[in-house]
């Protein structure tokens, strides 16, 4: 099936998503997720935060090491942040902002390494924007099968207060900000945030030049969704756009294109093998991961998640699954 057919199917399915997503499903995979620590806050075993910052444009600074990326846009009435880092990095992130007030905070998705600072900034009056599904995840206790434990919902003050389903725009001073949904790319609530005038595009965990792509298949993410999401990002970017992943260095449009092309190749190969009833181990044995253009940390784990996602979406790629 061509990408456009896959997209049409996915978009047609959007109408039914609200019902499906009314209660977050269990997460079968942590992926990139930095799960909230078992240790109480203030534990002496807490990770030490070492932040770095890099100016991406006159008004935009990238903070890394939280442990994910935090992107900060400065305007006369305060800051707009994309993601708030992990809980044990929150004070360090705040200190790095040199006293500027955070007016607006976007969460690219619900994972704890993107939302751990929500409580701190929410308490101080930030308006928190996110996809409606991200708010649902953060508002409900959820089970983590691989650790056999429940993660508690965030307190009300840490939850997104402004939610959306598709896309929107706002201004912060002179900067035009555009944001929108990236359907089924990494979780079921991923968004991009595009600082249009500064030409900086924050993409969360939907892309990384270094990390194995994480597909939270249990919650609805799959390889087809990731390819389509990358197409949406490519349509926003030009050759000068600075594309900021949650992990790894800033990407160019050409690097994102190469990553998307690799994902599409993997999509074509793995859907064909899935059509013939092949497992993740079969895919590995068939040499699928020898065809990628960068090293993967855990190729089998990636293919396992790909396979799970494809089986959950086999009607999307027209498979006559054996
Ligand atoms: Zn993530």
Reading the helices and strands in chain order gives HHEEEEHEHHEHEEEEEEEHEHHH
Q: What's the total count of β strands?
A: 14
As a percent range, the share of strand residues is 15-25%
What share of residues is helical? Answer: 25-40%
Tags for this model:
30% helix, alpha/beta, 21% strand, 14 strands, 322 residues, 7-stranded mixed β-sheet, binds zinc ion, 10 helices
Explain what you see:
α1 packs across α7 (223-236) and α7 (223-236) runs antiparallel to α8. The strands form three sheets. A seven-stranded mixed sheet has the order 1-2-3-4-5-6-9. It has a five-stranded mixed sheet with strand order 10-11-12-13-14, covered by helices on one side. The longest helix has 23 residues, at 253-275. The radius of gyration is 19 Å and the shape is globular. By secondary structure, it is of the alpha/beta class. The protein is built from ten helices and 14 strands. A hairpin with a 2-residue loop joins β10 and β11 (175-181). Zinc ion binds next to loops.
What would a concise description of this structure say?
With 322 residues, the chain is an alpha/beta fold. It is built from ten helices and 14 strands. Helix 1 packs across helix 7 and helix 7 (223-236) runs antiparallel to helix 8 (253-275).
């Amino acid at each position: 099936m061509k990408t456009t057919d896959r997209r049409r199917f996915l978009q047609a399915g959007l109408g039914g998503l609200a019902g499906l997503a009314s209660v977050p499903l269990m997460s079968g995979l942590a992926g990139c997720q930095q799960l909230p620590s078992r240790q109480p806050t203030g534990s002496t075993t807490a990770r030490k935060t070492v932040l770095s910052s890099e100016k991406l444009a006159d008004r935009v600074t990238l903070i890394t090491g939280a442990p994910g990326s935090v992107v900060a846009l400065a305007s006369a009435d305060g800051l707009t942040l994309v993601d708030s880092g992990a809980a044990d990095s929150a004070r360090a992130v705040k200190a790095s902002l040199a006293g500027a007030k955070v007016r607006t905070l976007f969460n690219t998705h619900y994972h704890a390494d993107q939302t751990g600072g929500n409580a701190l900034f929410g308490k101080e009056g930030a308006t928190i924007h996110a996809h409606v599904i991200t708010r649902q995840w953060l508002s409900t206790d959820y089970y983590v099968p691989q650790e056999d434990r429940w993660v508690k919902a965030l307190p009300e003050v840490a939850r997104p207060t402004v939610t959306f389903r598709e896309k929107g725009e706002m201004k912060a001073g002179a900067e035009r900000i555009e944001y929108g949904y990236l359907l089924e790319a990494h979780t079921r609530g991923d968004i991009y945030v595009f600082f249009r005038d500064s030409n900086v595009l924050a993409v969360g965990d939907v892309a990384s030049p270094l990390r194995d792509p994480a597909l939270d298949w249990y919650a609805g993410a799959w390889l087809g969704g990731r390819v389509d999401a990358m197409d949406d990002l490519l349509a926003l970017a030009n050759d000068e756009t600075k594309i900021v992943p949650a992990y790894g260095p800033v990407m160019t449009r050409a690097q994102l294109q190469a990553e998307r092309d690799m994902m599409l190749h993997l999509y074509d190969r793995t859907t064909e093998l899935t059509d013939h009833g092949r497992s993740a181990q079969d895919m590995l044995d068939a040499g699928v991961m020898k065809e990628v253009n960068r090293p993967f940390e855990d190729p089998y784990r990636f293919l396992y998640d790909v396979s799970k996602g494809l089986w959950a979406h086999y009607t999307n790629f027209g498979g006559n699954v054996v």
